[in-house]
Amino acid sequence: MAIMMPASDQAVLARRAEIVAALRAIVPGEGVIDSAAEMRAYESDGLTAYRQPPMVVVLPDTTEQVSLVLKYCAGQGIKVVPRGSGTSLSGGALPLEDGVLLGLGKFKRIREIDFDNRAVVTEPGVTNLAISQAVAHAGFYYAPDPSSQIACSIGGNVAENSGGVHCLKYGMTTNNVLGCEIVLMSGEILRIGGKSAENSGYDLMGVITGSEGLLGVITEITVRILQKPETARALMVGFAQVEAAGECVARIIGAGIIPGGMEMMDKPAIHAAEAFVHAGYPLNVEALLIIELDGPKIEVDELITRVETIANACGSTTCQISTSEAERNLFWAGRKAAFPAVGRISPDYLCMDGTIPRGALPKALARIRELSEKYQLGCANVFHAGDGNLHPLILYDANKPGEIERAEAFGADILRACVEFGGVLTGEHGVGIEKRDLMPEMFSEIDLNQQQRLKCAFDAQGLLNPGKVFPTLHRCAELGRMHVHAGKLAFPDIPRF
Description:
By secondary structure, this protein is an alpha+beta fold. It is built from 17 helices and 21 strands. A hairpin with a 5-residue loop joins strand 8 and strand 9. Helix 9 packs antiparallel against helix 14 (361-375) and helix 10 (267-277) crosses helix 12.
């Protein structure tokens, strides 16, 4: 697969041996990897259709080392690509031929658990699930739970603003992060936010969360933890038509009921997940909703009755309600394993990520079916139905000529449809390189230039993760230039700095 990336700086590549030696002085021992064989593990993230070995891999284990690496690279004009666990599905951690890949895998310590303030201070390499496991003994957990939570790192979650099954009720990463320590490209170390739920001034945490490694390198994160609800039960509801399941989702939310999680799978995804996990999914339905309700027992019992009534009114053909914690977890096991399950029925697949208004769900699914026929490629749909976050899995075989190109075109048309229906290009996977060239579908040139000005405020040289997110990357001087017409500046009375 070929994709346009920033041209390699041959002057930097000519100094590779010198650069490696300088980095070894900053991160001694096994902290620098420069052999071609050992760097193969870093040539791609979860979007394996794109591969590019880095110039060198650096694995620091202290904030001070990160600061010194970035300061050195800034002084030498060397590009840097930050990387967490490498589970990104948008190519956000794709290396550069002339760049340093800065891995945060050694930052795997939980620094503080503060139950009084319901907060955990953690390093970015700690996995999402490990935070919940660390506080489970006291009845607490960390709410955002992406399907890759057993492997994805909390630093990557912040970079991509990850969601998960429970984001409908408890919010995305941005709603559960309180503060962070971030190192700028200059080497400057900033602390933003903290354990307090409210902070004055600009919402810099909102800027950092979802910034995809373009603004700085996160070396510490403070997250909010929640007390586990008294009761949690799940319904597994089958429908003969996908549109009926979409209508059920809309009616549940319209009734003022906010489930802890509400997920949908279509028939191909149901069959793949059931064969993989044996969760007891009905195989004679076109769509399956998994709806979890949590809170005080009396409230959960009442809501289950109301949801079951709504589902029946929408024409549900099957309805199973969990009667134990083990059964509830089994319902979710299939959904959590849907991505690897689909990998058993297709040699390759592209996992897309777009978001639509809930009311557009039937239209979106109909459009995906039309596109599937147009491109002659299968598609399994798994998504966070409650907040309209679609995850179509486009099935293809990379060994068959032309199929990857058709899969890419299929995926691009799905994302265009999301924008057409009033949604956005990404819900939680980020833009990376996968959606980079589609950004003009959603943003005007003025919008994109303004976003790049924000990047310039953090990274004036444009050295952090270049080639990602922006379809055309301008130099900061170009974005900040003053327009001169007929030898005169516009509005000459305005002070210039």
